[in-house]
Amino acid sequence: MADRIVVKIGSSSLTSDEGGLNRERIEFFARELAALHEAGYQVLLVTSGAVAAGFRRIGYKARPKLVHEKQAAAAVGQALLMRAYQEAFGAFGEEGGIGVAQILLTRADFSNRSRIQNALMTIEELMKQRTLPIINENDTVSTDELAQKFGDNDKLSALVANLVKAKQLLILTDTDGLYTEDPRKNPAAGRIDRVGQITDDIMRIAGGAGSSVGTGGMRSKIEAARIAMRGGVPAFVGRVAEPDDLRRAVLGDGKGTYFDTSLHNLPMKKQWVGFHSLPQGKIAVDEGAEEALLHGGKSLLPAGIRHVEGDFHPGDVVEVVNLRGQTIGRGVVNYAVWQIQAVAGLGTDEVRRRVEVGRIEVIHRDEWVTLEA
Q1: Quick check: helix, strand or coil at residue 310?
Q2: How far is 245 from 181, CA to CA, in rounded Å?
Q3: Distances (CA, A) of 12 to 48, 118, 174
Q4: What pLDDT, on the 0 to 100 scale, is given for residue 147?
Q5: How far apart are CA 290 and CA 305, in angstroms?
Q6: Rounded to whole angstroms, how far apart are CA atoms 86 and 34?
Q7: Quick one: which of 67, 114, 238, 345 has the most CB atoms within 10 Å?
Q8: Smallest Cα–Cα separation from 305: which of 292, 314, 315, 316?
Q9: CATH class of 4-269
Q10: CATH class of 279-370
Q11: Which helix H or strand E contains 107, and what residues bound it?
Q12: What is the dihedral of CA 214, 253, 241, 13, to 10 degrees?
């Protein structure tokens, strides 16, 4: 199978600060992506820009802030964005150009295992037919409250990369990677060329603010890289501004920061547990259980549990946190919340005397996904 490359381009790279599409930039990125496509890679594009493309056309003077206004702008802008991509890719490849296809996803699509499986089958068929999928969030139906929006599609691109088991995720931005400090404030700041583990220090220096037309900053890109790495997909965050920059980024000589991982691609079920499911509760564990889950390859037993939150039942997904309140992973629970409350901190023999459960493990190792930084 050809190497799969997921490329994410943000609003600031495709539109002007005042809003509206920058056709020259779209044509530039289409040329860069077409070169990979023609070289035999299976390329998937995750694009932002619908709201930024549409808000001027619909009559707003600045990027709207209210949800229904953003959705209206996206409804207009999405059509403009896809037409621009179709025209740009139509100039490359064989007669008729490179075919493109639009796929709109929401957080709810990933949460539903059958829906995301269907989306994957569609993507697989498109790539089989040498058609380039262009993926965006379905802004016209997504809301911050109901769908946990992806954040300028950074997280969406990581989830897509994991879903298709990509060889690499490239998140393109207007800065050439992660720096030790904000280079706009400190010219002496140094670029970090490679990251093997995303620590608290890495997250701290990632900063926050994005551009006036986008919603994602460097922090959201690092969080996306973390998701990709956990799914076995190495990531690149950096700039593609000149011809051949994208190919060089794929080959390891890009203008940005590389995020390496030694992990393998996760099976579909573990992807769903770790990244797509909606946890129904929370379990706090002691230091011994934390060590066993993260580094010992063990299941979670009642003895290591301190307390629980939520209302869940056997088969639900729950989040597991350590004593500092940090999320260390997710898993499918074998107990109802009241059963855990009755046996938390107890040994195996005492557990069996108090409750009747099918398995002694609260979360079996096979249904656990580590999410530690």
Answers
A1: strand
A2: 24
A3: 9, 31, 7
A4: 42
A5: 10
A6: 12
A7: 238
A8: 292
A9: alpha beta
A10: mainly beta
A11: helix 107-111
A12: -10
CA distance 286 to 299: 14
Tokens 């023999």 belong to: 349
Q: Does residue 214 surpass a pLDDT of 50?
A: no
Give kind and range of the element (H or E) at residue 169.
strand 168-172
275/31: higher pLDDT: 31
Cβ contact 54:77 at 8 Å = yes
What does the DSSP assignment read for 218-237?
Answer: HHHHHHHHHHHHHTT--EEE
Is residue 312 a contact partner of residue 336, using CB atoms and an 8 Å limit? yes
Residue type, 196: G
Q: Which of the pair, 321 or 94, is modelled with greater confidence?
A: 321
Contacting residues for 54 by C-beta, under 8 A, at least 6 apart: 72, 73, 74, 75, 76, 77, 78, 80
**d(C-alpha 348, C-alpha 361), whole Å:** 9
111-116 long-range Cβ contacts below 8 angstroms, 24+ apart: 111/276, 111/277, 111/278, 113/268, 113/272, 113/276, 116/163, 116/272, 116/276
Closest CA to 49 of 212, 213, 206: 213
